[in-house]
């Protein structure tokens, strides 16, 4: 994996305050596209109280959402934005069928793995625009998310997952 030297990355890095503006623009754009953001604390949808979940055009955020930094909100929402594109590409029933059941609900959930890895990649890239974060840490997180319990053991080949993130995180 080729990693830019930290000094070089620092020069091109955005100031974290810019995340506030970027978040505001993204929220405005989402509102225009009819996307709603609801807090799980005040919603019928309570599943996975610590996680953000997107269903169709609604993003359900965790109870402690207001304590997130703007950059954390931004990286979460760019991730969920990818799922919104996936929903519109495959339709809501199509997305859910692929996401939950294909090929198997556990271990070889190929589409869940594909959908999530694409969304995580975009979220990680957003974080790297703003923070000196070791890519290896993000990649480890990606491997863990894809291969462990949070996403129902979506994929069971950690080496392949690692390789994919290494190649695509740049
Ligand atoms: Zn996701």
Q: Can you describe this structure in just a few lines?
A:
With 170 residues, the chain is mainly α. It has helices at residues 6-12, 18-32, 70-90, 92-101, 110-130, 135-147, 158-168; strands at 36-39, 53-55, 58-61.
Top keywords for this entry?
binds zinc ion; globular; mainly alpha; 170 residues; three-stranded mixed β-sheet; 6% strand; 58% helix
Structure in words:
The chain is 58% helix and 6% strand. It has helices at 6-12, 18-32, 70-90, 92-101, 110-130, 135-147, 158-168, and strands at 36-39, 53-55, 58-61. The longest helix is centred in the middle third of the chain and has 21 residues, at 70-90. The protein is globular, with a radius of gyration of 16 Å. The protein starts with 5 loop residues before the first helix and ends with a helix. It binds zinc ion. Zinc ion binds at residues 79, 83, 116, 119.
Break the fold down into its secondary structure elements and pairings.
Layout: H1 6-12, H2 18-32, E1 36-39, E2 53-55, E3 58-61, H3 70-90, H4 92-101, H5 110-130, H6 135-147, H7 158-168
Helix pairs in contact: 2-3, 3-4, 3-5, 5-6, 6-7
The chain binds zinc ion.
Zinc ion (ZN) is lined by residues 79, 83, 116, 119.
Strand order of the largest sheet: 1-3-2
How many distinct folded domains?
1
Could you give the order of the helices and strands?
HHEEEHHHHH
Sequence stretches where pLDDT stays below 50 over 5 or more residues: none
Structural class call reads mainly alpha
Write down the overall geometry.
globular
Count the strands? Answer: 3
- Ligands (ions, cofactors included): zinc ion
Strand proportion: 5-15%
Cα end-to-end separation: 8 Å
Give me the Rg, rounded: 16 Å
Query: What is the average per-residue confidence, as pLDDT, rounded to a whole number?
Result: 91
Q: Helix tally?
A: 7
Proportion in helices: 55-70%
Major sheet description: 3 strands, mixed
